[in-house]
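Hi R.,

Here's the chain you asked about this morning:
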Amino acid sequence: MTDPRRSAELYHEGRERMAAAVRGLSPEDLDRQVPACPQWSVQDLIAHLTGVAADFAAGKVAGAPHPPWTAAQVATRRNLPIAEVLDEWATAGSALEAVIVGGTTSHPLVCNPYVDAAVHEADLHGAIGSGRPPVELWLAALDWMLDEPGPLTVITPDGTYSAGSDEPEATVRTSSYELFRAIFGRRSTAQIERWDWDDPAHARTWTPAPSWFPQTSISLND
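And the predicted structure, written out as tokens:
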């Protein structure tokens, strides 16, 4: 479990980076499709992140993180000026950081919003080339996601992880960033099959992504 102050710090830093990246974008760039979230524009992505902060700070966790919950966040802010959305995110984000540090909730998503933010920071990079999240951020997300033993051993230059999968037991080597993206459904089956598997047939057992993440059928390069 991430220390609350560290969790708030990671989230705050990511929020600041993304806000700086989109502030001042042209309407055309704000309307650009996000490849990893093809149903969303860049504006929609920021609307979602703002809505997450507002909902979590207010304790509105019913339905999180499933599509109807996120769809409402996006729809509410879709037609607002981006400056107004960013101002709301600054206020709600600060309130959420105070909730994390204050220890008033044990809800895992509320206590660790940097994980979802890290995923979407990489998504944003895929849309506008704003830069990958820092290594420390995606490593923290991996540590949080892969904290239970499983039959799949994933070896990266930064560490060895266990992940859930269908039987049999298997071993694969890849980079930490590729694992981070795949865990959240941002890598296609074809991309995952190209990892260094102990047996190529074992690639078909990859099933660690939570069911609420849409699995991409196209190769993403971010």
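The chain has ten helices and six strands.

Let me know if you need anything else.
M.
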